């Protein structure tokens, strides 16, 4: 019963976050170097005049830094595998993307800081990856499209020995197959 209610609530939240199309922008004015006068850009509406790199970023929301889908890490408190409220929108956005792109698959990579035994950190990393997987499944993503793996403490993002560094290593990374 709890799963059904949670699923309905999360679906409602996702529906409220649906994106709307952007309005078409007017062409920019271009200076005519012969006369120094401003004239409207002569490019046809809908023609992308940006460099190839800019067009690729705009075409792929996973690589657009202004899109929530570019955020790929979920961070945890010490000795915890509960997804914090501040990271739930990231998981929800990726679940929504996966539902819309049925050909895509993800690998959830669980990580831990260096404190604790190797075995404990591997188990904790697995629990962290599994907690994100469970959340994605509740949001409608098929379990067969989600793989989980734990790196424990073996793949640190930061190698210093302090809390600021350890907090960067307590994470689950969302990696899309083929990237």
From TrEMBL:
<comment type="subunit">
    <text>The Tol-Pal system is composed of five core proteins: the inner membrane proteins TolA, TolQ and TolR, the periplasmic protein TolB and the outer membrane protein Pal. They form a network linking the inner and outer membranes and the peptidoglycan layer.</text>
</comment>
<dbReference type="InterPro" id="IPR006690">
    <property type="entry name" value="OMPA-like_CS"/>
</dbReference>
<dbReference type="InterPro" id="IPR036737">
    <property type="entry name" value="OmpA-like_sf"/>
</dbReference>
<dbReference type="InterPro" id="IPR050330">
    <property type="entry name" value="Bact_OuterMem_StrucFunc"/>
</dbReference>
<keyword id="KW-0998">Cell outer membrane</keyword>
<keyword id="KW-0732">Signal</keyword>
<feature type="region of interest" description="Disordered">
    <location>
        <begin position="24"/>
        <end position="58"/>
    </location>
</feature>
<dbReference type="InterPro" id="IPR006664">
    <property type="entry name" value="OMP_bac"/>
</dbReference>
<keyword id="KW-0472">Membrane</keyword>
<dbReference type="Pfam" id="PF00691">
    <property type="entry name" value="OmpA"/>
</dbReference>
<dbReference type="GO" id="GO:0009279">
    <property type="term" value="C:cell outer membrane"/>
</dbReference>
<keyword id="KW-0132">Cell division</keyword>
<feature type="compositionally biased region" description="Basic and acidic residues">
    <location>
        <begin position="24"/>
        <end position="34"/>
    </location>
</feature>
<dbReference type="InterPro" id="IPR039001">
    <property type="entry name" value="Pal"/>
</dbReference>
<comment type="similarity">
    <text>Belongs to the Pal lipoprotein family.</text>
</comment>
<keyword id="KW-0564">Palmitate</keyword>
<dbReference type="InterPro" id="IPR006665">
    <property type="entry name" value="OmpA-like"/>
</dbReference>
<feature type="domain" description="OmpA-like">
    <location>
        <begin position="63"/>
        <end position="179"/>
    </location>
</feature>
<keyword id="KW-0131">Cell cycle</keyword>
<comment type="function">
    <text>Part of the Tol-Pal system, which plays a role in outer membrane invagination during cell division and is important for maintaining outer membrane integrity.</text>
</comment>
<dbReference type="GO" id="GO:0051301">
    <property type="term" value="P:cell division"/>
</dbReference>
<keyword id="KW-0449">Lipoprotein</keyword>
<protein>
    <recommendedName>
        <fullName>Peptidoglycan-associated lipoprotein</fullName>
    </recommendedName>
</protein>
<dbReference type="InterPro" id="IPR014169">
    <property type="entry name" value="Pal_lipo_C"/>
</dbReference>
């Amino acid at each position: 019963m709890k799963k059904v209610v949670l699923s309905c609530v999360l679906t409602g939240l996702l529906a409220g976050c649906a994106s709307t199309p952007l309005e078409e922008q007017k062409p920019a004015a271009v200076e005519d170097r012969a006369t120094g006068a401003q004239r409207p850009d002569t490019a046809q509406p809908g023609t992308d005049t940006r460099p190839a790199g800019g067009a690729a970023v705009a075409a792929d929301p996973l690589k657009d830094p202004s899109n929530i889908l570019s955020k790929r890490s979920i961070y945890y408190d010490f000795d915890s595998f509960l997804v914090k409220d501040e990271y739930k929108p990231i998981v929800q956005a990726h679940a929504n993307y996966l539902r819309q792109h049925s050909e895509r698959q993800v690998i959830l990579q669980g990580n831990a800081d260096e404190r604790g035994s190797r075995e404990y950190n591997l188990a904790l990393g697995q629990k962290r990856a599994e907690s994100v997987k469970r959340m994605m499944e509740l949001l409608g993503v098929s379990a067969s499209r989600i793989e989980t793996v734990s790196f424990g403490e073996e793949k640190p993002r930061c190698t210093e020995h302090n809390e600021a560094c350890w907090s960067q290593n307590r994470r689950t990374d969302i990696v899309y197959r083929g990237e």
